[in-house]
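A student in our group prepared the protein record below, which I am reviewing. What it holds is a sequence and that sequence's fold in token form. My question to you is simply how this chain folds and whether the tokens agree. Do not assume that whoever made the record got everything right. I have pasted the whole thing underneath without changing anything:
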Amino acid sequence: PELFDSNVDYRASDKVSTNIDGASFSLVWQCSTDTHLSRYCPQFEPQAKLNLGWILIGHCVGTMSPTTAPNFFQLSEYGDGCP
């Protein structure tokens, strides 16, 4: 996800990343889906010690390339046409 930007009006379920000084990875955060907590997301940058409105969902290294998903496979039919 994009880096946190204090000029963006984040809403519930939005995702951002934050860099960690000296680390080779970024933390990934999601704005809470709770109505009361999500209102804090535009006001506070997510941090490990203060994450009001933000939920830490993981970390990432570099960028992700697009996937080929979904992949469709031909299924064999059995009986009355159920795969």
Observations:
- The chain has one helix and three strands.
